[in-house]
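Posting for a labmate who doesn't have an account.
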Amino acid sequence: PPDRTVFIEALLPAGVAEVVHLGSQAGFNPRPGQAAALESALLGRRGHVECWRREDLPERWAFGKHRRVPAVYCQADTGWRIESRERKARSKAPPHLGAHGFDPADPRMQALFLADGPDIADATTLPVFDNVHVHPLLLELLELPAMPQTNGDPAVLRPALSAGKR
């Protein structure tokens, strides 16, 4: 909703950073000589947004060390957006009424997972799990080789498999 928007101009002085992306998350790289100003303006909680240095991102997100992650990464609270007034003024698009990319630890971000088929156990209820564990389950069901670079753990959803597939 439009009233759930944090405008970056209210937090970040002009000319301090290159905006990499905006939305449910936002990323910023400092302009030359502006790293301290960028961090001073954004790091920590600022209303409905929390920002971290790339290397300090929550470990459970498993991407803070990647070179493509901006120097400062911000996460909006669930249901909020980080936007620029200038970009919003230029946009002809209707207001955003939904988005992905919010913190998966927020219970409101949990999804329903249903599976059925010859290799899926009947009437199985699983505890809450992260979506990254679906990937290794699909690899197993399709009899494709495991991928070492995935963040999912095949053991998490193995109880969903029929006895002959476990």
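Reply:
Got it, the structure tokens are right above this. The chain has a mean pLDDT of 89.
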